[in-house]
Amino acid sequence: MDTTKVLLVKYGEIALRGKNRRMFQKQLTRDLQRRLEELGGYRIVLEDGRFVIERSGSASGEMEYESVLSCVRTTLGIVGFCPCTRTRELSLENIIRLVLDYIRDNYNDFACSFKVETKRANKLFPVRSYDVSAAVGEAVLNSFPPSRVDVHNPDVVLNIEIRHSAYIYSKVVPGLGGLPAGSSGRGVLLLSGGIDSPVAGFMMAKRGLALEAVYFNSPPFTSERALQKVLDIAHKIAGYSGYIKLHVVPFTDIQTYLYESVPREKLTIFMKRAMLKIAGILADRCEAKCVVTGDSLGQVASQTIEAISAIDASCSITILRPLAGLDKHEIISIAQKIGTYEISVRPFEDCCTIFVAKHPEIRPKVHIIERMEAKLEFLPEKVRAAADAAYAHVFLYGSSRAEL
After folding, report:
1. Cα separation of 286 and 220, whole Å?
2. What DSSP assignment string belongs to 96-115?
3. What mean pLDDT do residues 328-345 have?
4. Fewer CB within 10 Å, N or C, the chain?
5. Residue of 298, 299, 309, 311 lying closest to 269 (CA atoms)
6. Cis bond leading into 220, ω under 30°?
7. How many CB atoms lie within 10 A of CB 390?
8. Dihedrals φ, ψ of 294, to 5°?
9. Which residue, 86, 127, 92, 100, is CA-closest to 1?
10. Positive or negative CA dihedral for 62, 67, 68, 69?
11. How far is CA 359 from CA 45, 145, 147, 267, 383, in A?
12. What number of other Cβ atoms are within 10 A of residue 358's Cβ?
């Protein structure tokens, strides 16, 4: 009997992409294959709207589910992974036999409620889905007398998918969903090392945005440990996005110049405007179409709608704020789930918190800010110099960073 253990991979939104579906499928295949390379001996097959991870023809041994899942479960664009048994012999008798073997292999005591769900994508198979489920359910009841059928709230759902092959599974390991990494273009993430910006980066990566991050480094006001914290966060995000380039921008000169040149209550606004200008320059160089920030509306003084308007007016590039409608508790919850929270709470300050005013202005006027900034004759030169002096670390999934 031709039966093998495989991992069935379900994707969500890609199925709705119409004529563009193949492009998303190729992107997801590349991401999965790159992650599987560290194991060796596995390949990906596309069959009727499903990806199947299986042992490659030259590899020996059965599927090692835990090892494979540890490599691929953080892949973006996937809604679920199903460890299952596959057979190429398409007959009702063989499917029934395979389901009974599957139960014996995976359940010590099948004294529980169950239902059978059949999806018959292969319409050449002569038995209708309902009839397959009924026949399998009857065989299970006869072979495991303590079991019982419950179609509304079963303990176990026995899934049968009939495609070119038949797949039997009952367990689904949840995926992250979203779109494949890099399928929606490129953006620049302002990465501070706090709790919010890593979550913003993850959320946009989940929407298919390839990320290049920018960190503004201000020695001696910030330490090497603060930089290391950001490098660790970038490495963590790369575990989801598959790739991230972190640009480290020397910001001390601009920060001290603004500190000496503008009113203290307006300092944060001017610093963030300078940051956006630099991010815009870097975005243009790497052909990114947007800048991503971790702003949450009203969370701090520089995130009021007036302050956001004053900051955004500094450049013309599109600004995305995926956390705008979330409160701090919701952001922390996501940070904990993706593993960045423990890194972000390390007690090392970023450049914005060092010079924060005791009473920052919360409702700045754009025209006043722009009129004041026009008098800062050396600022454009310093912004360009900071962008030119940036150096980058590249992080790839499963590898250490490389400095550029």
Report:
1. 29
2. HHHHHHHHHHH-S---SEEE
3. 96
4. N
5. 311
6. yes
7. 21
8. -95, 25
9. 86
10. positive
11. 59, 73, 68, 11, 26
12. 6
How many CB atoms lie under 10 A from the CB of residue 185? Answer: 12
Q: How many CB atoms lie within 10 A of CB 384?
A: 13
Q: Which helix (H) or strand (E) holds 119?
A: strand 113-120
SS3 content of the chain, % helix, strand, coil (to 5): 40, 25, 35
Strand partners for 63: none
The residue to which tokens 């600004």 are assigned: 319
Give CA 34 to chain center in angstroms. 16
CA 11 – CA 275 distance, rounded (Å):
37
Pairing of strands 156-162, 166-169: antiparallel
Retrieve residue 398's tokens: 């499963």
3-state secondary structure of 148: strand
pLDDT at residue number 279: 97
> Collapsing DSSP states into helix, strand and coil, what is residue 135?
helix
Which of these, 103, 192, 191, 203, lies nearest to 143 by C-alpha position?
A: 103
Q: What is the pLDDT of residues 7-43, one digit of tens each?
A: 999 987 887 777 788 888 899 999 999 999 888 899 9
Alpha-carbon span 193 to 308, nearest angstrom: 20
Assigned token pair, 223:
């330490």
SS3 label, residue 310:
helix
Distances (CA, A) of 379 to 212, 278, 384: 24, 11, 9
- What's the token pair of residue 396? 């790839």
Q: Single out the residue of 180, 179, 133, 134 nearest to residue 31, CA to CA.
A: 180
Amino acid making up residue 211: L
Beta strands in 155-281 (DSSP E): 156-162, 166-169, 173-177, 186-190, 210-217, 243-250
Among 50-59, 152-161, 277-286, name the one with the lowest average pLDDT: 50-59
- Among residues 364, 397, 348, 105, the alpha carbon closest in space to that of 240 is found at 397
Rounded CA-CA distance 400/383 in Å is: 30
CB atoms within 10 A of CB 168: 24
